[in-house]
Specification:
The N and C termini lie far apart (48 Å). It is globular and about 55 Å long. Strand 1 and strand 2 form a beta hairpin. The protein is α+β, with helices and mostly antiparallel strands. It has helices at 37-47, 58-74, 100-103, 107-114, 116-126, 153-156, 186-189, 210-215, 230-237, and strands spanning 12-13, 16-17, 25-27, 49-52, 130-132, 137-141, 164-169, 180-183, 202-204, 241-243, 251-255, 260-262, 271-280, 303-305. The chain binds 2-oxoglutaric acid. 2-oxoglutaric acid binds next to strand 6, strand 7, strand 12 and strand 13.
């Protein structure tokens, strides 16, 4: 599907107006029908992502949306005069909850991410039993800024480097509500840069804020973004930002080296999506994100070194 770009000329990411010219912006290439592992691997190598429209049963996804929007209602995040399923944000609401508020005790979500079609896909794609990271990121992107460009490896590269993210829209996401964007081919363009070797939980012990990091008073010296400016980054790498009008059931899978971010949310609704990581079970894993109580990004995850 080609986006009707002229009708949607004003799209922002991280507060920057995106360049909508054909060489700068486009829609995902569908991977529907590609199922032989070698073909999936070469598509991933070429583009840095796979896009499967209607991969999941729409009802499976909408069941997750029902449960999550009921929780958002209970958390006071929704406009009281709207239906929960619409996910219309209460104007001025400042979220203080983390993904766990929506991922814990959520069997519909667990079933979708950790069993069935997604797990079968990774068994085929990776060529062996897959393992998923128990920590998954449930995104509630309120009206305003989306996610700045980054690659996942800088957050989760302490085990296998052969990790893949599955990004799933929890409901339909029109462009104004701001879904995932991928910088086409960026995994290869960044291959030789130091960015992909960095780790957000490493810190310089000889910097003035080192004690604050070690004590947990401050979260990080660097937050993992490859750039604050998606427009300049695109120009620099000579690649296109790609996205689509997501429908419930669509799935995007991308490599841990692929740069991605998201469109800003210029609607009144909360954008709901979830992203989860998969790798071969036989490879080492990053202990920050696995097990029944992942340590995530707390103080114990920090590693100091002299810079
Ligand atoms: O959904 C988003 O805004 C960002 C997603 C993301 O960063 C990821 O899937 O790794």
């Amino acid at each position: 599907m080609q986006l009707e770009l002229t009708e949607r000329a004003n799209l922002f990411s991280a507060g920057y107006l995106l360049d909508m010219k054909a060489e700068a912006f486009g829609s995902f290439r569908s991977s529907q029908g590609v199922d032989v592992p070698s073909k999936l691997a070469s598509r991933m190598e070429e583009d840095g992502y796979l896009f499967f429209p209607n991969f999941l049963d729409r009802e499976v996804v909408l069941n997750v949306r029902r449960l999550v929007t009921d929780r958002l209602r209970a958390l006071g995040a929704l406009d009281p005069d709207s239906l929960s399923l619409e996910a219309k944000a209460l104007p001025g609401f400042v979220p203080t909850f983390g993904p766990e508020a929506l991922t814990s005790n959520n069997p519909a979500l667990d079933q979708m991410l950790h069993a069935g079609k997604v797990i079968d896909f990774f068994g085929n794609f990776l060529g062996g039993p897959p393992r998923y990271f128990e920590y998954s990121w449930f995104r509630t992107i309120f009206p305003g800024r989306g996610t700045r460009p980054h690659s996942d490896i800088v957050y989760m590269g302490r085990g296998s480097r052969n990790i893949f993210t599955t990004w799933i829209p929890i409901g339909d996401i029109p462009l104004q509500t701001g879904g995932l964007m991928i910088l086409e081919g960026s995994h290869r363009k960044l291959e030789l840069t130091s960015y992909l070797q960095r780790d957000v939980d490493e810190y310089c012990t000889n910097y003035p804020d080192a004690e604050d990091i070690a004590s947990g008073k401050k979260s990080w010296q660097w937050d993992g973004a490859v750039s604050n400016d998606p427009v300049a980054l695109r120009q620099q790498l000579g690649a296109r930002w790609l996205t689509t009008e997501f429908k419930a059931g669509d799935v995007v899978i991308f490599s841990a080296q692929t740069v991605h971010g998201s469109l800003d949310n210029s609607s009144e609704k909360i954008r709901l999506s979830v992203d989860c990581r998969y790798q071969l079970a036989s490879e080492p894993f990053d202990e920050r994100w696995v097990g029944p109580n992942p340590i995530a990004r707390g103080v114990v995850a920090k590693r100091g070194r002299i810079c």
